[in-house]
Structure formats: C-alpha cells, structure tokens
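Below is a filled-in request sheet from our internal design queue. Each sheet records the structural input a requester submitted and the sequence that came back. We keep these sheets so that new team members can see what a complete request looks like end to end.

REQUESTER: design group, bay 2
PRIORITY: normal
MODE: inverse folding
CHAIN LENGTH: 124
BACKBONE (tokenized):
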C-alpha cells in the first residue's frame, strides 16, 4: 500500500551558503521521512543559513516551513554543523507531526457536548 504522490516537493535554499549536490540530497533523504508519516504534506521549504559572525555553536541556522492541511508548521534550529542542524530540524518537524496526529485523535475520540438554545419537542 505504498503510494507515491508526485505533488510533494522539497525546496532547499541556501542563504550565504553554497549548496552542494550532496547537501541537497541529504536534505531530501531526511525529508522523505516526513512524507512517509503524513501524506497530506504539500510542500516543505528548508532554508540553510550560514552566519560567520555568529558564535561557533550557532553558526548554521536551518529553518523549515511545512505546508500541510490546516495551519502550517514552522521550525528553526541552530547548530555548529550544517548536517547536524538539518537532522535536528527534521526531528523537530517529525515531533510536530506526531503531536498533531495525537491531538486530532484526541479531539476525535472526545467530542464536545453541543448546547441547544431551543427546547426539543417531546415525543408522543
């Protein structure tokens, strides 16, 4: 039952950073995990930023924007290595998807009571 949906796309962009083909494939391989968990993801945009003026521990900042049914998910991670920051970002987005799924199941299993303003007619 593995269905491939061709309208899913991963957009990778670099800010003050040259994107190598290996870095692009690394991001796409990591993002595949998100598409396996949730089929309704339309697009994932990942921005890789390198700021040499920042402290060494926060030199690489990776931002992820996931377009999904309902409110979009946005996350940001800073690290000293680019690959490490990408992995941490994908883990963070994955946790966000899991939390969304738990919340939707919780709301589905515990419906709220409905208040009716008018009285119901009595059965005869």
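RETURNED SEQUENCE:
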């Amino acid at each position: 039952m593995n269905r491939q949906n061709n309208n899913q796309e991963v957009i990778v962009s670099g800010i003050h950073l040259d994107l190598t083909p290996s870095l692009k494939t690394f991001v796409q391989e990591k993002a595949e995990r998100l598409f396996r968990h949730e089929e309704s993801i339309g697009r994932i945009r990942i921005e890789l930023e390198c700021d040499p003026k920042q402290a060494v521990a926060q030199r690489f900042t990776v931002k992820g924007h996931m377009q999904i049914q309902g409110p979009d998910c946005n996350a940001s991670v800073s690290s000293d290595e680019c690959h490490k920051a990408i992995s941490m970002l994908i883990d963070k987005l994955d946790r966000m998807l899991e939390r969304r799924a738990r919340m939707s199941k919780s709301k589905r299993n515990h419906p709220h009571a409905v208040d009716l303003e008018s009285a119901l007619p009595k059965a005869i």
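SHEET NOTES:
- The two ends are 52 Å apart (CA to CA).
- Residues 82-109 form the longest helix (28 residues).
FILED BY: M.R.
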